[in-house]
Design goal:
Elements lengths: L1 E3 L2 E5 L4 E6 L12 E4 L6 E6 L5 E6 L3 E7 L10 E8 L2 E2 L7 E2 L2 E6 L5 E6 L4 E5 L4 E5 L7 E6 L6 E5 L7 H6 L5
Antiparallel strand pairs: 1-2, 2-3, 3-4, 5-6, 6-7, 7-8, 9-10, 11-12, 12-13, 13-14, 15-16
């Protein structure tokens, strides 16, 4: 779930998202204004509303993200959400082999510069610009997956958490010592 007024988005099973316009909620009607099917091939793992509340990013377990715009001023509920584009991230490419895809565990928006960060099971965080469709920064892989990321309010710092996210299964998690 993610919220930036007036937008509230929730991700559910079967790749569906529910969209609410918080300006139009009343005591008699809490129904979403739109039910949106994810353009991604696999189930959702994270989502985050844009800093201006005019859209959201949705990520999946297959190492992909989608950028979606929201317009509450249209008449047809099916036209409220527009998928702008989808892109691959958190993947390891090897020559002659299929790319290994990792789960996108977290998306966080930078309020000042309108960029966003994704944190993945590959142990990396990546900073993106949705408007220019560019990747700005890529971290070196951490020994464990990145489970969370966030920007400071003044955009001078980015914080991230690295830890066991169970992407390699329970047997691998038992072999790892707990570390802080």
């Amino acid at each position: 779930m993610s919220c930036t007024f007036p937008l509230l988005v929730t991700a559910h099973s079967e790749k569906f998202c529910h969209i609410w316009n918080l300006e139009n909620l009343n005591q008699n009607n809490f129904n979403p204004v739109c039910v949106f099917e994810s353009p991604l091939k696999s189930e959702s793992s994270s989502l985050c509303c844009f800093a201006d509340g005019k859209g959201f990013n949705l990520a999946s377990i297959e190492g992909r993200c989608s950028v979606n715009k929201v317009n509450f001023n249209v008449q047809n509920p099916k036209d409220i959400v527009t998928n702008e584009f989808c892109f691959k991230c958190h993947r390891q490419e090897e020559a002659g082999k299929d790319a290994k895809a990792y789960t996108v565990n977290m998306i966080s928006f930078n309020q000042k510069h309108k960029t966003f960060c994704t944190a993945g099971s590959d142990g990396c965080y990546i900073v993106w610009n949705k408007d220019t469709r560019a990747r700005y920064r890529f971290s070196k892989p951490a020994p464990q997956g990145m489970s969370a990321c966030a920007f400071s309010d003044d955009a001078s710092l980015i914080a991230f958490a690295s830890g066991e996210d169970w992407t390699k299964g329970a047997e691998f998690a038992k072999q790892r010592p707990n570390q802080v």
